[in-house]
Amino acid sequence: MTSTPPAPRLRATTRPLEHAPDLISLADPNAPMIWSRGDRGCVGVGEVLRLSFSGPHRFTDAAAAWRRIAETAIVDDSVRMPGSGLIALGTFAFADASSAESVLIVPRLLVARHRGQAWITEIAAVDADPAPLAVPDAPASRAWEGVRFRDRALATGGDSVASYLAGVREAGARIERGEFEKIVIARQLEGALPGASDLRVPLTRLAEHYLDCWTFAVDGLIGASPETLIRSTSGAVSARVLAGTRGRHSEDAARDARARDELLTSAKEQHEHAFAVQSVVTALSPHVRDLRTSEEPFPLQLPNVWHLATDLGAALGEQSSSIELVGALHPTAAVAGTPTATAVAAIAELEPFDRGRYSGAVGWIDADGDGEWVIALRCAQLGAPDAQTGARAVVASAGGGIVAGSDPDHELGETVSKFRPITEAFAR
Question: What percent of the chain has pLDDT over 90?
């Protein structure tokens, strides 16, 4: 379902820049729009158009709405790089019944870079007066007091950690009864962000510490995801699947190496990873040709955890937009379980909260339907500012895959490791 009025006809003008500016510094401190990884990414300034979607058809509705907008748009793009021309940034909710909006946002101004190349794009309604193509001044710095997270209070009362452990035990019992083979159970932390806080602070920390992740900020969803759901550019499609985790021990090299080796040799983790890879292969196969995967899972080293990872590559087999590919893939076994429909239904019973956009999708799409989307992991959602104080609620989520033999206390420890990127980024 869409609640968006008819969209105006848009004009996008892209021109090269001589120098690549620091993208995060240009972001709105209160409402940043960022997509960044190393020497690639973009920052959006202002908002020309917002499209909102919900329900089970949110991906197909969004793909159709964006196609209509792109078909009527006038695009003047002398750069012709991934991320130039007409662009929307978006984020999609995990569950069909979620109260969280799924959105596509077209920024008024986009400044982007790709390795040594940089450019600027101005987007406006066709009948609007064109604005000068100039990089805006970076907004002045604001205060940063940080956020102190705590276990999120349950609407039903009770202890949230105890509730999580009970959910994991119940999931294990259902696996033993043969109801499903794997399910992902998550839990949440909450905190309050003081008014007038500069959100470029946590974004900078995430970008500097999680170099192998996409750092993002779209409509109050802020994080650094290691898992590429789909990248589609010029007919080439790629994805990265992560499932199976061990906490890092960076203070002890020998212990850290043992954790990596345990992950690589664990039958439980390899089993979980195989579920996740197969779910992506099955979902992508109708849309691509020449699908290939890395021969064996490899250990992906992040500052907080080791992950088992598999890369996939393919050629686009039909004229599907990146959002349609996201819709075909979501939800993967890595964030839901196997069989997927059964696991999703059980998640609604075993998790005492709406995941919102956590474990949904976040990324961007261009006028050709190309784009790049990650699973919304290692992230937090900010609420609307309080009318009097300006303070904002912050909710972070993390979870892990439960399979036969999963230990609830170990799974709880895994969520602690997965919360670290957000709790450290938002710290004082």
Answer: 80
